[in-house]
Amino acid sequence: MLFCQYRYLAVEYLLVAVLSCCSSMRVNEQLDISSTHYLDIPHADIVARIDLTEWETNPESQCYLTFLKGRVWCKVADFFMDFLGASAGLDAKAQNRGLLQAVDDYCADAQLDKNERQQVYSYCNEQLQAGEEIEVAALSQELPPLGEKTFHAFSEEQDYELEEGFPADRSTLRQLTKFAGSGGGLTINFDAMLLGERIFWDPTTDTLTIKATPPNLRDQLQRRLSSGDK
User: Fold this and answer.
1) Does the chain have fewer CB atoms within 10 Å around its N or its C terminus?
2) pTM of the prediction?
3) What is the rounded distance in angstroms from the CA atom of residue 75 to the CA atom of residue 140?
4) For the chain, what are the domain ranges?
C-alpha cells in the first residue's frame, strides 16, 4: 500500500495505490544470475489521486478525486471507496459523451464542416496531454458562432448538463475523429473524415459502402479470389 504526498506545478496531491510485487531474474556485469523483486507499477489496478489544493480551496468541487480503473476495479470499487471515505461525484465519461452529442448537434445546426470536429478534438487532446480539464468556455472559442450564439451558450440552452470543466476521457474523445466497432466476426475502424466521401452508410438497410479499399486489404481479397478460382 503506497501513500505519497507530492507537489506538482504548485498543486499538492495525495496518491493512494495498491501495488503488487513481481519476481524476475537479473544478470549483472559478471554474468551472474540472481532473482529480484520489483513493483508492477504499469499494471496497477487500484490507484486514486486526490487534489488536496482543489479540495481545500473549493470544497464544492466534484473533480478533486481521480481514479485509475483497472481490470479488477469492479470487484473492489465499493471497498476502496469506503476505505477513502469517498462517494461518486462527477462522471467523466458521461460528461465526455454529453460533450460529443453537443458538438454533433451544434455542428449540424451551424452546418459546419468536418474540420470543425478536428478542431474540437485538437483542443481536447491538448488538454488531455497536459493533464488539464476540458473547459467548455475555452472550447467554445474553437468553434464559430451559430448566428450570435456561441457553443457555450448553445450547450447551456439545450441542457446537456455539462459542467464548466471536466476531465478528458481518451476513449470517448476518439469518436470525434474515428468510427470503430466490432461484433459477429467483423471489426471496422475508419477516420470520421471519410464518412460521406469514401464510406457511405445507409441506415435503412444498415449497410456500409466502401470505395477505394486499402491496398493491403485489396491484395488479400484478390489472392483469396484467385485461389478460389483454382
Assistant:
1) C
2) 0.59
3) 39
4) 2-84, 92-175, 177-229
Phi, psi of 89 (to 5 degrees): -120, -110
Look-up of cell digits 488538454: 127
pLDDT-above-90 percentage for the chain: 7
**96 closest CA partner among 72, 67, 64, 120:** 120
Kindly give, in sequence order, each residue whose CB lies less than 8 Å from that of residue 89, ignoring residues fewer than 6 positions away.
62, 63, 65
Strand pairing class (186-191; 178-183): antiparallel
Q: What is the pLDDT of residue 80?
A: 74
C-alpha dist (Å) from residue 48 to 84, 159, 169: 9, 31, 16
Cell of 119: 478542431
Distance in angstroms (rounded) separating the CA atoms of residues 223 and 100 = 41
Q: Side by side, which strands form the sheet with 46-51?
A: 2-8, 11-18, 46-51, 65-69
